[in-house]
Write a structure and sequence with these properties.
Number of helices: 4
CATH class: Alpha Beta
Number of strands: 4
Structural class: alpha+beta
Largest sheet: 4 strands, antiparallel
Shape: elongated
Number of domains: 1
CATH topology: GTP Cyclohydrolase I, domain 2
CATH superfamily: GTP cyclohydrolase I, C-terminal domain/NADPH-dependent 7-cyano-7-deazaguanine reductase, N-terminal domain
Length: about 120
C-alpha cells in the first residue's frame, strides 16, 4: 500500500479555454494526490515533516484564478509543477471543468496527469 496526501474538490473560478470561454470566469474542480511514505511525518507529528495540504489548495487556486490556459492539460501541468515546487517528489493531478461537460451533454470532462 502507498501512503498519500489527498486533497479533493479544490474549487476555484478561472478564465481558461478557447477564445470566448476566457471572457467570464468558469468553475474548475481539482484533485491532487501526493504519494509518499508518511510514516516519518507521523512519527515527527510536525507540519515541517510533510507537505501542508493547505498550501496545496492555495497553489491550485492561484493557478486557476490568476493564470490562463487554453487546455485542461496545461492547467494540470501548471498545478503539478506548483505542487512539486513545494516539496512533492511526484504528484497526480485531476482537473475537471464542469460547465464544459454540460455543453457537450456528458457527466464530466477531466484531465489526469502524473508527474
Amino acid at each position: 500500500m502507498t501512503d498519500a496526501i489527498v486533497v479533493r474538490g479544490i474549487r476555484a473560478e478561472g478564465k481558461h479555454g478557447l477564445e470566448g470561454e476566457r471572457d467570464t470566469p468558469q468553475p474548475f474542480v481539482v484533485d491532487v494526490e501526493v504519494p509518499g511514505d508518511l510514516a516519518a511525518a507521523a512519527a515527527a507529528d510536525a507540519l515541517d515533516a510533510t507537505i501542508d495540504y493547505g498550501m496545496i489548495a492555495k497553489e491550485v487556486r492561484d493557478v486557476i484564478e490568476n493564470e490562463s490556459y487554453e487546455l485542461l492539460e496545461s492547467i494540470a501541468e501548471a498545478v503539478a509543477a506548483r505542487v512539486i515546487s513545494i516539496g512533492a517528489n511526484s504528484v497526480r493531478v485531476r482537473v475537471s471543468k464542469p460547465e464544459a461537460a454540460r455543453t457537450i451533454g456528458v457527466d464530466e470532462v477531466a484531465i489526469v496527469v502524473e508527474r
